[in-house]
Design a protein that fits this description.
The structure is a single chain. This protein has no helices and 18 strands. The chain is mostly beta strands and 248 residues long. The chain has a single domain, classed as Neuraminidase (6 Propeller). The strands form five sheets. The chain has a five-stranded mixed β-sheet with strand order 2-11-12-13-14, with no helix packed on it. The protein has a four-stranded antiparallel β-sheet with strand order 1-10-9-8, with no helix packed on it.
């Protein structure tokens, strides 16, 4: 049996920026990788890989709850999918460290993010709770969510490469904000929203502050900011909407 730690954290943003309407994925980025690229995950468990190995998916399988998030291993050879009921599915070299299946949750799981070592992950719920597995109990975890105050509709969060406490968040319109380590407050966000045809659902691969990473839209489109564009599912008929992106 895997021990899980239940932690309630608070995300406080600069200029009264707090997280509201958070739906989508939290994706992690490690500082040292061997395979650069990203994967898109759909709500039916489908996975689309770009610039990295395809390690499997849940497409065509019966799911008790829709997939809500995806997180990548540091070497780019595996990933985890997380479902709304807290189920976790590991592919490639991603190891299973436990899940919340069958747990009495205050709200559904909406995101998963892995630790920099790839030996643990956090599951986050709509109520702002963070559940840790593996070595995710170590200091340096992601800010969680405060579902109150001014609504900026944050939909994704990714760790900035090479940092322990800097994270980049994105809104459904594509605006980016970066935490100021170690306080956890958010700043930046001055760039205009992207002219997307569908809402942004996730961000991955941040290597700087507010101007880098891959953004994914629910129609499968990918926007590359200071990162190479490796392809997308934009303009391709999908069986289910994309819910997140993970990569490094």
């Amino acid at each position: 049996m895997h021990r899980r730690a239940r932690v309630s954290l608070r995300l406080v943003a600069a200029a009264v920026l707090v997280v509201g309407g958070f739906v989508g994925v939290i994706a992690s980025t490690a500082s040292a990788t061997t395979t650069s690229g990203y994967v898109l995950a759909a709500s039916d468990g489908g996975v689309f890989a770009f610039g990295r190995p395809f390690a499997g998916s849940l497409a065509g399988h019966h799911l008790n709850a829709p997939i809500k998030g995806v997180a990548a291993t540091p070497d780019g050879k595996g990933y985890w999918l997380a479902a709304a009921d807290g189920g976790v599915f590991a592919f490639g070299d991603a190891r299973f460290f436990g899940s919340l299946s069958g747990a009495d949750l205050l709200g559904p799981v909406i995101a998963i993010t892995s630790t920099g070592t790839g030996k643990g992950y956090w599951l986050l719920t709509t109520e702002g709770e963070a559940f840790s597995f593996g070595d995710a109990t170590a200091p340096g975890g992601p800010p969680a969510i405060q579902l109150s105050g001014e609504h900026f509709d944050f939909v994704g969060l990714t760790q900035v490469a090479g940092t322990a406490r800097a994270f980049e968040a994105v809104t459904a319109s594509g605006q980016l904000f970066t935490t100021a380590a170690p306080s956890g407050t958010f700043g930046c966000g001055s760039q205009p929203a992207l002219p997307t045809q569908a809402p942004i659902v996730g961000v991955a691969g941040a290597v700087g502050t507010c101007q880098s990473g891959w953004l994914a839209a629910s129609d499968g489109g990918v926007f590359a900011l200071s990162r190479p564009f490796l392809g997308s599912m934009g303009a391709t008929p999908l069986n289910a909407p994309v819910v997140g992106i993970a990569g490094n």
